[in-house]
Amino acid sequence: MRRPFRVLLCLAATALGFTTLSAPAYAAAENYVALGDSYSSGVGTGGTYSGGSCKRSTNAYPRLWANTHAPASFNFIACSGAKTADVLNSQVSALSASTSLVTISIGGNDAGFVDVITTCTLGSDSTCTNRVNQAKTFAQNELPARLDNVYNQIKQRAPSARVVVLGYPRFYKVPGSCSVGLSDTKRSAINSGADTLAQVTAARVAAAGFTFVDIRNAWTGHEICSGDLWLNSLTWPVEESYHPNKNGQARGYLPALTAITG
């Protein structure tokens, strides 16, 4: 009975050896391209940015993922201020048949993110609500075709890639403990805009056969006016406002992406 026992031990050891070797081999074969806007480039995390006006941060989730997974190649193309047209005109060219992983956040700037925040900060409750409703109408009626164009281009240029589309968080805790800032009416309106954007994006991602990461639940308890912010409120420099901070990237986006990619 000892000989079969030894054989079993050898087989087990061999299987374990193959398992141990396969994970690094798979990671080393990953060719990762990170597309998208400022939520992917890492604006809001402070420090020094690269890529000129694209403001790519070493604290952004694509860079953090690459640091921990050591892919065979990593192309960080995400750019602050990007809209769907910018992805089509200057980002998707980085994709190829060898690309095996693509991440992207896009659509917020198309829907007028900056103008919504500005209007709600400076205007009345009704002015804010009206502007958010305009953004929601755009997201429901015009954004789907724009997203489809982006996703179709990604599929054509990187047909074998896993494509992960990451959404945007709700901005505010309502009611929250902010001593100053926007009213609960404005906060609720802005959050409803984020919900509409998530719903529209999720539908188009599903139609494309990609994976959508809804970040809203992970962000619960970490919105502006909560006790543990993962999102900047109005801050300096102003362009850092209403963007994920270091914790938002490292504790919000990175774990969500890692849960999908393994």
UniProtKB/TrEMBL annotation:
A Pfam match: Lipase_GDSL_2
Domain of life: Bacteria
Listed name of the protein: Lysophospholipase L1-like esterase
SUPFAM superfamilies per the UniProt record, alphabetical: SGNH hydrolase
Keywords of this entry: Signal
InterPro entries per record: SEST-like, SGNH_hydro, SGNH_hydro_sf
Gene3D superfamilies (UniProt xref): SGNH hydrolase (3.40.50.1110)
Chain ranges of the SGNH hydrolase-type esterase domain: 34-250
Signal sequence range: 1-27
CDD domains for the chain: SEST_like (cd01823)
